[in-house]
Amino acid sequence: MANKQKQAVVLLSGGVDSTTSLAIARDMGFICCALSFDYGQRHIYELKAASDIAATLGAVDHRVVKIDLRGFGGSALTDEIQVPKDRSYEAMTSEIPITYVPARNTIFLSFALAYAEVLSSADIFIGVNAVDYSGYPDCRPQYIEAFQTMANLATKMGVEGKRITIHTPLIELTKAQIIKRGIELGVDYSHTFSCYDPQPNAGTTKACGHCDSCLLRAEGFRQAGVEDRKKP
Predict the structure, then answer these.
(1) Which of 75, 104, 162, 198 sees the fewest Cβ atoms within 10 Å?
(2) SS3 call for 16
(3) Is 9 strand, coil or helix?
(4) What is the dihedral of CA 178, 24, 21, 126, to 10 degrees?
């Protein structure tokens, strides 16, 4: 059990994984400071979900940093590129998909690291997952280990002996296991949003139900034996 006075920076997108990661950090006794990004993503509605989740799960602070990655593009999430739909699980994991945003987790973790240093916090949580990770190279354990090594070499805290830890509580879990763990911790997943290509509908934003993220979410809830009560 962590010291209840210790702060942690928790990367929060508004989806199932980052929400569960926040719940786990809170359960470990950390005072949680949530960090989200407006990076020009087409599914920017996720930030409304992140705001609701941060409040619901008791984050003491929730910051949204604007960094417009549309200036580089190169991803279906930040460029005029069609989001793949109705792909099989094998297709999702056979190659790095076009929804991969170049260096996104490296960028996000770098901002989280800077925020953590300002807070004098040595703990950062990220909800990466190496099982149902849809082919993203920056969700692998090797990547996290390398970033943590860099963080301890490149920061004042690390050099002065306050070791920085990148926590990845979901890295070896399936989506179903993640959902079950969140439910154990009282997470209301109806507040989360996972879609890569949301469809505006009468003033609301609804998940498309066909992109990789929607399909992995649906399969996760199915395998967990839990109804997905996602709100529009």
Answers:
(1) 162
(2) helix
(3) strand
(4) -130
Angle at 136 between CA 147 and CA 231, to 5 degrees: 110
pLDDT tens, 182-193? Answer: 999 999 999 999
Token digits of residue 160: 């002065």
Domains of the chain (ranges, CATH numbers): 7-224 (3.40.50.620)
pTM summary value: 0.94
What residues contact residue 53 under an 8 Å CB cut-off, 6+ apart?
12, 14, 19, 22, 34, 191, 192
How confident is the model at residue 203, as a pLDDT?
A: 55
40, 68 Cβ separation under 8 angstroms: yes
- For residue 56, give the DSSP letter: H
Query: Cα 145 to the chain's mean position, in Å?
Result: 17
- 28 φ, ψ (degrees, to nearest 5): -75, -5
Per-residue model confidence (pLDDT) at position 134: 60
